[in-house]
Amino acid sequence: MIPYEYYVALSGLLMVLGLVGIIVRRNLIAMLLSTELMLNAVNIAFVAFDMKVGDVSGQVFVFFILTIAAAEAAVGLGLIMAIYRLKKDVNTNTITELKL
């Protein structure tokens, strides 16, 4: 059986990669993907600590996080498509205001 410390280390690595992706990238779709990566890092951490404690409450939180992540992806992609139709670009450096 794999020790839970490895799962926590993997979770921390994914969280850092997601945070770097949000800070470095200026494309809205890449930022959305980095946010999803960070949410999955939290899911791995919840399951790892749940495995250590022996309770199922972490898995319940994972279920809710996955539900919220799916809704966030749907709404986020809808907003990105609407911004692209108006501005013809999804780069955050060129989109500075929400006026037409």
* Overall number of structural domains: 1
Report low-confidence residues grouped into runs of 5 or more.
Answer: none
| Overall geometric form | elongated
Secondary-structure element string: HHH
The CATH class assignment is: Mainly Alpha
Q: How many β-strand stretches?
A: 0
Under the CATH scheme, which architecture would be assigned?
Orthogonal Bundle
Helix run count: 3
- Please state the CA-atom Rg, rounded to the nearest Å: 17 Å
Mean pLDDT reading: 88
Structural class: mainly alpha
- CATH fold-level topology: Helix Hairpins
- Straight-line distance between termini: 57 Å
What helical percentage do the residues reach?
Answer: over 70%
Amount of beta strand: under 5%
Task: Report the major sheet.
Answer: none
Q: In terms of quaternary structure, what is this?
A: single chain
